[in-house]
Design brief:
heterodimer; A: ABC transporter involved in vitamin B12 uptake, BtuC; two-stranded antiparallel sheet; B: Rossmann fold; 2 domains; 11 helices
Chain lengths: 363, 323
């Protein structure tokens, strides 16, 4: 018994403990609901092969959470290095998708139904979309790192202009690409939903970069104290710039996925409000929005937690208009439990219990 | 500076002179909502097609790009320029009283088109528009005809909560459904009028309700999403399979009706200018006109279905569709 408690104490200190507990909580809500409804208790976790692809609620979460997870990677770096958020990611997603579809279909064309009607190979359009998103990131990074403009103000520019530029590119219309070769990015790859595969690939690439290079350390160091880092020989400006470019590129990838899902450039709706989910994912992952230390795995778990909450709302039959209220309640619980004040309180109590000196505020 | 001012004034006068109306043309001012959808653009184009100089009109159409304040100021401008008729497609329902009074005091007939205003009908001459509730009723009546007394389990993917289209279409459909105890509406969820929203809602519906017969989508985009979700789950739709009902009847939507995928598609008719023109001609002729004229909405069903209520889709109908 004692060893279990000790193990729990040890585990609860791990940085990923709370994000994982949040996911667990959401799953428990579903299990309880299914039990009450008289369904198979593990209905929510059940998955099977249907039409040659994985199928089930848990697959829906992994699939639909892909865009937020991809955005969360870039957002984590931006938050860590510049102590601010990039609120343009949703609009940049839309811009990337619009440019891609416009290039593929040609300006003013609204439907492409035959491979022969394409103006260029699909991969060129996709790369152009991701590249323009990278350029947006470069612009944001330049304003933040070089011009020292507050991140929220700097990224507000593309937050407002991104969709408008997308609408200009698509001539105010929805551009459809009815081709299986284009639908694949939002469709399925063998038995897996492609967005999940793309998200996994993005996470893997970032993880390898962080593991094999000192980028992670540099980013955190710049985030904690840019001046000290510069004196220590780190090019703060370049690091912040790089973080914004990476964030832009990942927004582009997420934009292509979202566009491919609906095989059309819907400038008004693609990535709508997703910047908020990405920021929330970073916060839910136990990262401080004040910059500095970051935990990428936490952010990604945070992104899937948000999707799990959304999918749960659907499963419980909550009307979509009211869902944000319940979502907010769950988010409040998770954020409060993770807050420094609550952590400090528990540390304080623990210290009192052990009869030692109460050391408040240190967790 | 003075010279510059004089130049500007001269320029303005020249412009005013050139834009002065030709003899005998009726000056129509139309404040359009914006250009947010293919539907809206078809509506704008229709005004340009109908109110031509050959037909005896001079049309000034202002695209207000969803800016209510701009719309108000443009109406005042029409009053100052002493237009013969002012047609308003109001961006929002509220806040029209003062401007409408000004138009009335100037003695200019004012027609509210497409959308509605939240003002006393004393303040405007007449209104022309579609009826979303009637669209819902058409969809319901078609289902009644198609099912011919058979029981049905129905799923509804609504439009954005609170929008007039979502409220009206649901109200109309529910009115018909109330007469049919053998119909059961299993669930109704907001799909945001988007394809992605429709797909996400349908993915959930399929898992919660393995047995259903009908999906009612409040617009075409939601229907595309629902179809994608059903494809992924291996659920078939069409004649003899699951029934998809949709609204809007855009060209792309009707393409899928012709293909037998969306069995019934009820339009919201953007071709409204002819009706506005008829109303104006009636006023010119001094006839009594009703306070509201309905723009008739048409329903379409897939080939192979016999219907006395809606038009059966053909290649010709699709080819004639502009939006």
């Amino acid at each position: 018994m004692k060893s279990v408690i000790n193990w729990l104490k040890k585990v609860s200190k791990k940085p990923l403990f709370l994000p994982l507990v949040s996911v667990f909580l959401v799953l428990v809500i579903n299990l309880v609901y299914d039990a009450i409804q008289g369904n198979y208790v593990f209905e929510f976790l059940k998955f099977e092969l249907k039409e040659g692809a994985l199928y089930g609620r848990i697959i829906d979460i992994l699939n639909r959470g892909s865009e937020a997870a991809i955005l969360a990677i870039g957002m984590t770096l931006v938050v860590s290095s510049s102590a601010g958020t990039d609120i343009s990611v949703g609009s940049v997603m839309s811009l990337a998708g619009s440019l891609c579809c416009m290039l593929l279909a040609g300006f003013g064309v609204t439907h492409v139904r035959e491979l022969g009607e394409l103006q260029m190979p699909i991969f060129v359009g996709v790369i152009a979309g991701i590249a323009v998103a990278g350029l947006c990131g470069l612009f944001n990074g330049f304003l933040v790192a070089k011009m020292k403009i507050q991140p929220m103000v700097a990224t507000l520019i593309f937050f407002t202009a991104g969709r408008a530029i997308g609408l200009l590119l698509t001539n105010n219309k929805m551009v459809y690409i009815h081709l299986e070769q284009f639908k694949v990015f939002g469709g399925k790859l063998w038995i897996f939903p492609t967005p999940t595969v793309i998200a996994a690939a993005c996470i893997l690439v970032m993880a390898i970069i962080l593991k094999t290079t000192s980028l992670g350390m540099y980013v955190q160091s710049v985030g904690i104290n840019p001046k000290a880092s510069r004196i220590a020989g780190i090019n703060s400006v370049a690091i912040i710039l790089l973080c914004y470019v990476i964030c832009g590129l990942f927004s582009g990838v997420a934009g292509i996925v979202a566009t491919s899902r609906i095989y059309s450039a819907d400038s008004n709706n693609i990535g709508l409000n997703l910047e908020l989910d990405a920021i929330l994912a970073v916060a839910l992952g136990g990262n401080s929005l004040g910059g500095g230390r970051f935990n990428l795995a936490g952010s990604i778990i945070g992104a899937y937690t948000i999707q799990a909450i959304t999918t749960t709302m659907y499963a419980l039959g909550v009307a979509k208009a009211q869902a944000p209220v319940y979502k907010a309640i769950i988010v409040i619980l998770i954020v409060v439990v993770q807050s420094p004040a609550v952590k400090a309180y528990f540390a304080h109590r623990k210290a009192q219990k052990e009869g030692g000196l109460a050391v408040a505020g240190r967790s | 500076m003075k010279k510059l001012l004089a130049l500007v004034i001269a320029l303005v006068m020249v412009l005013a002179a050139t834009s002065a109306f030709a003899e005998g043309l009726l000056k129509i001012g139309y404040v359009q909502v914006g250009h947010e959808s293919d539907w809206r653009m078809a509506n704008t184009q229709n005004y340009y097609d109908v109110f031509t100089e050959d037909a005896g009109f001079e049309l000034e159409l202002i695209d207000c790009d969803n800016d209510h304040a701009l719309q108000l100021s443009k109406v005042r401008e029409f009053v100052q320029k002493d237009f013969d008729y002012i047609v308003i497609d109001p961006i929002q329902t509220a806040g029209w009283d003062d401007v409408l009074k000004e138009v009335q005091e100037a003695g200019i007939p004012c027609i509210i088109a497409d959308r509605s205003v939240d003002a006393s009908d004393e303040l405007y001459t007449t209104a022309v528009g579609t009826d979303m509730t009637a669209e819902g009723v058409t969809a319901g009546k078609w289902l009644e005809e198609y099912l011919a007394g058979k029981a049905a389990k129905i799923l509804v993917i609504e439009g954005s909560t609170g929008s007039s289209a979502a409220i009206g279409r649901a109200e109309g459909f529910n009115k018909v459904a109330a007469d049919h105890p053998e119909w059961e509406i299993l669930a109704s969820q907001d799909g945001d009028f988007t394809q992605n929203g429709g797909q996400a809602v349908m993915e959930d519906f399929i898992k919660r309700f393995p047995e259903f017969d009908v999906v009612v989508c409040h617009n075409d985009n939601e229907a595309y999403g629902a179809m994608d979700a059903m494809d992924a789950a291996g659920i078939k739709y069409g004649v003899g399979e699951k029934i998809i009902i949709s609204f809007d009847a855009t060209k792309e939507g009707l393409t899928r009706t012709l293909a037998g995928q969306i069995l019934c598609n009820v339009e919201c008719n953007p071709i409204q200018a002819v009706i506005v023109k008829n109303v104006i001609e009636d006023i010119q002729a001094g006839k009594d006109i009703p306070k509201f004229t309905l723009v008739p909405d048409e329903g379409f069903c897939a080939p192979g279905i016999e219907s006395a209520l809606v038009t059966v889709m053909t290649d010709e109908v699709l080819a004639a569709r502009k939006y």
